[in-house]
Amino acid sequence: MAEIGAIVQKVRSKNAGPFWLTVDVFCGSAEVFARVVSALDTARVAALYGVSGADIRRFDIADLNVVKFSFPRPTVQGTAADRDMHGAAWAVLLEEMEIA
């Protein structure tokens, strides 16, 4: 088992508009991309972020060696309850997830 952040080039999160977040896993090579795609379960990622499996969107982009997840923000960006205006802190959760 290894943390995703230890095997990929970068994990980045950001806003995808005021209502959605996106988390990108930049694998860096086709070999790492294949490992991440096969070992990273979408339902597990949904549970990590506290969203239902029906609300998370996954995009495996082989040409770029990137796996992308998008899901609704828990609060609308910029409201008083928003603790991460830019959506940048969400990457760490996935970066620390262990996969085979």
Describe this structure in words.
The chain is α+β, with helices and mostly antiparallel strands. It is built from 4 helices and 6 strands. The strands form 2 sheets. The protein has a 4-stranded antiparallel sheet. The radius of gyration is 13 Å and the shape is elongated. The chain starts with a strand and ends with a strand.
Care to give the gist of this entry?
The chain has four helices and six strands, in the order βαββααββαβ. With 100 residues, the chain is of the alpha+beta class. It is elongated, with a radius of gyration of 13 Å.
Q: Name the structural class.
A: alpha+beta
Q: Could you state the oligomeric state of the chains shown?
A: single chain
Largest sheet: spatial strand order: 2-3-5-4
Biggest β-sheet strands, sense, barrel: 4 strands, antiparallel
- Low-confidence blocks of residues: none
Strand content: 25-35%
Number of strands: 6
Radius of gyration: 13 Å
Q: Give the proportion of residues in helices.
A: 25-40%
Count of DSSP helices?
Answer: 4
Mean pLDDT: 96
Shape label: elongated
Roughly how many Å apart are the termini?
Answer: 5 Å
Order of helices and strands: EHEEHHEEHE
Give the secondary structure arrangement, pairings included.
Elements: E1 2-3, H1 4-7, E2 10-15, E3 20-26, H2 30-39, H3 42-49, E4 57-61, E5 66-72, H4 91-95, E6 98-99
Antiparallel strand pairs: 1-6, 2-3, 3-5, 4-5
